[in-house]
Design goal:
The chain contains five helices and two strands. By secondary structure, it is mainly α. GO terms for molecular function: proton-transporting ATPase activity, rotational mechanism.
Length: about 290
Amino acid sequence: MSGQGQRLTVVPTVTMLGVMKARLVGATRGHALLKKKSDALTVQFRSILKKIVSTKESMGEIMRNSSFALTEVKYVAGDNIKHVVLESVKSASLRVRSRQENVAGVKLPRFEHFVDHGAGDAKSDLTGLARGGQQIQACRVAYVKAIEVLVELASLQTSFLTLDEAIKTTNRRVNALENVVKPRLENTINYIKGELDELEREDFFRLKKIQGYKKREIERQQQAAKNFAEEQYAEKISLKKGISINSAHNLLTCLDVTLREDAYSSSFHGDFPLLFVAYGSITMGV
């Protein structure tokens, strides 16, 4: 799909991760709402299509009856009846008005007819008084019915075209959210999570290295302090015994090794604490 492998160019931070998650939630809700809107428009679209088919089927019969009624009028009253009717009528009494109908946020135009009784002329009612008056009134009723069907068909076809365009636009938005926006946000969220995990691993490794360095530094300082203490103690022994510092170091080393061996062998006979007392008395008496 077009959204796979793509992501937004963002800085991988915790704040941006929250922003991307919020945008993903909004895109998911918008996708669900647009999907419901598309379904509602599709249902209305199919309903209008059925009405158009039925209206067109009935329109043929109505137009045939009106044409046949006009033929009867011309046969009874003569061909000059058209001019007589036009002279007797000053303004149209059957009018058309428009209104808007809201369907799932889409405004559909609706046309409806109505009779304006004030616009009619009383002289038109006397048309055909000499001959053919009944056929003229029947023809008038037939053509009024035909006009009603034509107005209804015009309203349905206009709503049909408007709904068709609205459904196409809604479906394009649904597909864009489903195949582009949501995958891009998901890829961005996965990228930010991966970068944050990598930073966390780097911080953990850095802390371990710092702890190891501190531990080695402490051990080095302790060893230096121990060496300094042994050096000071060796100098005291050399001064008291009148021997060299190297001989004092050797003496301390021999005493330390001997005491370690005796402590190991005496630990099985319960004399281990006594050796430390002896070692303390030897070192203090040296």
